[in-house]
């Protein structure tokens, strides 16, 4: 009887875990339920995030991207990473080859794929971290305070979001030094996921 109960419990937990995984949308991109829905006006998205006491992060992905899948399944599914991001950032997803209309900080209207080229996004996933206040001119690519091109392990990913939230880009400590210091302070607890 105990064996049947344990097998049932394992099956239930597996089903629950799978149901919480990111789903794939019609555009072929993984969707997190906590990603922000937006009209893709970057200045408005920055202001909305600021009003909520958060920062805006724009993530570019593409259909069939194995690194995007890894980010969703192995990094964004981690409660520590997910909870930190949702408490401190609004994340808006863009399709690197998409046709949805985007409004850049200078007021230009362009497609997602044109925005990716204009903002020098060439890898997926790439995350662009926006300033707290939208500049009155320029482009997202010029205004971004940091970017994270590619898929990284949990600690690197989390530390980058923490570094941006703490405005590390304004100080003298480069992200790599910050990351090394945080790894040492954490005793390498998340390091095995790199």
TrEMBL record:
The keyword Kinase does not apply. Residues 49-130 form the Thioredoxin-like fold domain. SUPFAM superfamilies: Thioredoxin-like. Residues 1-21 form the signal peptide. It holds the Pfam family Thioredoxin_2. Gene3D superfamilies: Glutaredoxin. Transmembrane segments: none annotated. Keywords: Signal. This is Thioredoxin SoxW.
């Amino acid at each position: 009887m105990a064996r049947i109960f344990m097998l049932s419990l394992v099956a239930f937990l597996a089903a629950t875990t799978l149901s919480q995984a990111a789903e794939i949308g019609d555009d072929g991109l993984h969707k997190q339920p906590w990603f922000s829905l937006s009209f893709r006006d970057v200045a408005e998205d920055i202001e909305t995030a600021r009003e909520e006491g958060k920062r805006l992060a724009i993530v570019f992905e593409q259909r069939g991207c194995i690194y995007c899948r890894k980010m969703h399944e192995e990094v964004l599914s981690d409660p520590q990473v997910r909870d930190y991001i949702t408490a401190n950032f609004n994340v808006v997803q863009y399709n690197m080859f998409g046709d949805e209309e985007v409004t850049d900080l200078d007021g230009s209207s362009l497609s997602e794929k044109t925005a990716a080229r204009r903002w020098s996004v060439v890898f997926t996933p790439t995350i662009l971290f926006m300033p707290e206040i939208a500049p009155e001119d320029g482009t997202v690519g010029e205004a971004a305070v940091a970017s994270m091109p590619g898929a990284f392990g949990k600690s690197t990913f989390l530390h980058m979001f923490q570094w941006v939230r703490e405005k590390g880009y304004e100080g003298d400590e480069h992200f790599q030094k910050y990351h090394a210091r945080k790894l040492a302070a954490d005793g390498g607890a998340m390091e095995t996921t790199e």
